Amino acid sequence: MSRSPEETLELTADVLVIGGGLAATWAASAARRAGASVILVDKGHCGTSGVTATAGPGHWWVPPDPAELRETTIRNRLKSGFGLNDPEWMARVLALTWESLPTLEGFYDFSTDENGVKQYRALRGPEYMRALRKLVDSLGVTVLDHSPALELLQRADGSVSGARGIRRQAGGHWQVNAGAVVMATGGTSFLSRLLGSHTNTGDGYLMAAEAGAELSGMEFTTYYTVAPVRSTMTRSMSYAFATYYDEDGAVIPMPPGPDTTRPLARAMLKGHVFCDLARTPEDIRGRVPTISPNFMLPFRRWGIDPYKDRFEVTLHGEGTIRGIGGLRIVGEDCVTSVPGLYAAGDTATRELVAGAISGGGNINSAWAVSSGQWAGRGAARFAAENPAASGARPIGQAGLRPATVPSDVDLGAARSAIQGEMLPYDKNIFRSGHALKRSAETLDAAWAEFDARARGVGDALLRTRETAAMLATARWCVASALARDESRGMHQREDRPQTDPRFDRRILVGGLDKVWTRSDYGRALELAS
Amino acid sequence: MIELVIAERCTGCNACVEVCPTNVLELVAGDVPRIARQADCQTCFMCELYCRGDAIYVAPDCESPTVVDRDAILTSGLLGEFRRDHGWDEWATDPRYTNEHWRMESVFLRARDMAISEAVAKRRDGN
Ligand SMILES: Cc1cc2nc3c(=O)[nH]c(=O)nc-3n(C[C@H](O)[C@H](O)[C@H](O)COP(=O)(O)OP(=O)(O)OC[C@H]3O[C@@H](n4cnc5c(N)ncnc54)[C@H](O)[C@@H]3O)c2cc1C
Ligand code: SF4
Ligand code: SF4
User: Fold this and answer.
1) What is the DSSP letter of A329?
2) Where is the 4Fe-4S ferredoxin-type domain (chain B) (predicted)?
3) How far is it, in rounded angstroms, from Cα A287 to Cα A298?
4) Counting one residue from A and one from B, how many pairs have CB atoms under 8 Å apart?
5) Percent of chain A beyond pLDDT 90?
6) CATH for A225-316, among 3.30.70, 3.40.50, 3.90.700, 1.10.3470?
């Protein structure tokens, strides 16, 4: 640590981008190209942090000609999204994603297929994020690595004008006075051991909510991904050929199609579940290491041959990552309900495009690419009218400025409480009103205590603030799941198995001391039939 | 979790300190980086990928530390395997390690077609 802990690096820029993943880098590039000066801060390292860097997103990728292709795609997704998505947003995302990926030529080494056709749709994670880092560096974005944001700065008129945080490696604090801010801190899986997700603790949701932002779709947080037990390897491609067995070695029947979570979770609630990949065709086995080089690492290191041996599997919760909820978007430029604050990627709700089912596999990454650029441009425009200035107020509360006298809180216990409500299959996959109410009580009590007393200092500062963020996020998820008193898409209530037309609308949520929910009547939603 | 930084392979470039998303490693002046916060390791293997010296070993267990035999790991062929399969650095021109990630979609389609034909065969066999 080269600096004293009290020292603050104070910087000024038109646009501050918080986060360093897929959405943040696209946002920073767009703001810069719009002529703004840009600072990007990442909790970890921009280029390896976030869930893109460890995976390999296939984007929503539909050619513009013939026009029927996109029309059909949108019509089908409206149906599968249970009417919570919006055809105009879908069309915008398809168009911008299609234009954007080829612009990475020169930064990403796109492969060609047997016929010499360039393949733009799916990019390998580490190479993709390395390319985006090179892109933002080449455009003159100032990047602060290992510099997590802790709180936003707010002008007297309520608009957001920068942030403060810490420099984990250099030491001391940073403060960026900005014209506008893009929040791109990803989703959160509540530290479930989902691959690459451990810098994503929902900080952006909490920071934004403290400025008055609303969230939407937080009930759609029941996505889980299979992985070998004790491993983070949630790469799912090879599990398309999986056979699952119960403790007695009997095959667990799976419905046709990709939705294996519910039967697997049901089996796991009864006992250990095992798996082999013996159905994988020979030629594909040979290609797995050059398609997803990380997939085989745990097996090779454990001496398991997954094509022959049975290994135990688990399901890692994804929270809002391949769930759907996030900050509510109120304009085409991805502005939140707070002026000067823009949201992109998994920090924003993806209902607009994905609807009530996961956007993993195609929509999420296309949304990060598109919403990032809209947010970056929107922030640049806002900053042109509202220049950066010092003197704004830092507004962080829970974990930073306790409501009463600070005293020690047990961070480990708080985390266990959060995970204990948000990850268990019986509470979160098979939901019921009764259990959700109990979860709400547990989390409210934990919040009241945390908000009143927790103040992170020294090495525990970031951890304390992250815990506050996950706690707030968990409360919004549970409140929204209670408010959606029906089953729809990934949100399945055992006590309300039907989809109810009264809920053909999005559910908004927010509030810190007291959590509120309300239906989004802002836009009439027609349930696709 | 990360288990080893092998001194005789480490060039002291400190790339691992910089790229680790969860700040597990710490720079040590004049020495190899120190695994300072192992409990924070998110088992993402990024440090291995960026280590040109192939000096890092990350054990797949993400829940608790693994007891590893350093000498066995050194001769296991596992060090540097990830960077090689990615075709990075000196492997960039080796045709065995080209980036075939774009084939992922076709793999999913193969699985779907297999499932359909298996279901058809099952119905034909009358069960
Ligand atoms: C295993 C897996 C496979 C996937 N595959 C696909 C796919 O095939 N297709 C698809 O469409 N989608 C896929 N997704 C989803 C897709 O990866 C995400 O939608 C996308 O990465 C979102 O980008 P993001 O920038 O919002 O978040 P991330 O890429 O996760 O980035 C978030 C960033 O914010 C930083 N951050 C967090 N808190 C702070 C803070 N307080 N201060 C500063 N920085 C902070 C983090 O360090 C990180 O760099 C997959 C997800 C997973 C987990
Ligand atoms: S990246 Fe590898 S060679 Fe460089 S300092 Fe780390 S361990 Fe040593
Ligand atoms: S595996 Fe990932 S989290 Fe662990 S030390 Fe390496 S880079 Fe850091």
Assistant:
1) P
2) 1-30
3) 17
4) 139
5) 94
6) 3.90.700
Per the structure, the complete domain to which residue B113 belongs is given by: 2-125
Cis amide linkage into residue A5, ω under 30° from 0: no
ipTM of the prediction: 0.96
pLDDT-derived band at A528, boundaries 50, 70, 90: very low
> pLDDT per residue over A148-201, tens digit each?
999 999 999 999 999 999 999 999 999 999 999 999 999 999 999 999 999 999
Percent residues over pLDDT 70 in chain B: 98
**Is ligand 3 within 6 A of the CB of residue B2?**
yes
* Gap between the Cα atoms of A32 and A53, Å rounded: 22
- State the ligand closest to the CA atom of B13: 2
- Does A364 contact ligand 1 (Cβ within 6 A)? yes
Query: Residues B26, B45: contact at Cβ < 8 Å?
Result: no
Question: In this structure, what are the phi and psi dihedrals at residue A488, rounded to the nearest 5 degrees?
Answer: -160, 130
Contact call for B45 and A123, based on CB within 8 A: no
Query: Can you tell me the distance from the alpha carbon of A323 to that of A349, in angstroms, rounded to the nearest whole number?
Result: 9
- The alpha carbon of A326 and the centre of ligand 3 are apart by a number of angstroms equal to 27
Q: Is the CB of A97 under 6 A from ligand 1?
A: no
pLDDT at A174: 98
Q: How far is CA B2 from CA A242, B18, B37, in A?
A: 29, 15, 10
From ligand 1's centre to the CA of B114, what distance in Å? 31
Q: Give the three-state DSSP class for A61.
A: coil
pLDDT at A149: 98
Domains of chain A, residue spans: 225-316
Count of domains observed in chain B? 1
Question: Residues B50-71: pLDDT tens digits?
Answer: 999 999 999 999 999 999 999 9
CB of B35 shorter than 6 A to ligand 3: no
Cβ separation B19–A302 shorter than 8 A: no
Interface touch B22/A197, C-beta < 8 Å:
no
A383 and A15 Cβ atoms separated by less than 8 Å: yes
Q: What is the pLDDT of residue A515?
A: 98
Alpha carbon distance A151, A162 (integer Å):
9
Give per-residue burial for A44-73: e unless 16+ CB within 10 Å, then b: bbbbbbbbbbbbbbbbbbbeeeeeeebeeb
